[in-house]
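Input/output pair, single chain:
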Amino acid sequence: MTEELKEKIAGEITLSNDPGMTIRKWREEFGLSQHQLAEAMGVSHSVISDYESGRRRSPGSGIIKKLVDAFIRLDKEAGSPTISKYVPESVLDCVIAMGEFRSGIPMDRFIEEIGGENLNPDRLPARMVYGYTVVDSLKAILQLSSNDYMKIYGWSTERALIFTDVHFGRSPMIAIRAHPLSPAVVVYQKPEAVDKLAIKLSRLEGIPLVTTQLEVEGIVEKLEKYREGI
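Output:
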C-alpha cells in the first residue's frame, strides 16, 4: 500500500499544471521544511525552493522519485503519521480489490468497461470515477464498523463501490444512505434481482446503480489493466 501512495504522489506531481505547488502541498502535508527535504534528497535547499517557486523547469522522473522516496522515508522515521492517514492500517477481509486511477474516467465509459446497466432512470450530472473498491457484501455487513466503512473509500469518495454476493441489494444501499460519504457509483455484480427500494435510494442519493454480469475475476482484471494503462 505504501507503493500505491508513492504512485499517487508521483502521479499528482507529474500531471499537475503547477508541479511546484503540488510539491509544496505534499511537503507541507508531510510536515517537512524545505531544508529537511533537501537534506534527505542530498540536494541544496535552493533546489527545492526553485522547484516550488517555478524558477526551475518541471522536475524529471528521477527528481520526482527522490522527492517521493524522501517523503516516505522521513515519515516512517517519524512514526508514519502521514502515511497512516492515507494507507489503511489493515486490509479488511471484505475488500476483494481496491485501486486508484491516475486520472478520472467518465461515468458512461466506466459503466461500459464493466458491461454494466444503469438502473437509476434519473438523468444525473456527469461524474468522473477516480477509483474502485470491490467488496464482498455479506462479509461487509458482518464486519464493517462505522470507522471501517471509511477505509473502503481509499483516497477518493469519487469511486465505484462494487458489491459481490448480492441477492437483492437492499442492504448496501441502506448502508450508503445512512453514511455521510457517498460513492460516485454503486455496482452490483450478478445480483439475483434488485430490490425496488435499492433503486429508490439510489435516486434519492443521486447515484447511478449499476448491475454487471461479469465474474469478479473479470471485473478486477479489467479495472487493474485499465488502471495500469492510463
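Strands lie at 95-106, 116-118, 128-136, 159-164, 185-189, 209-212. The first helix runs from residue 2 to 15.
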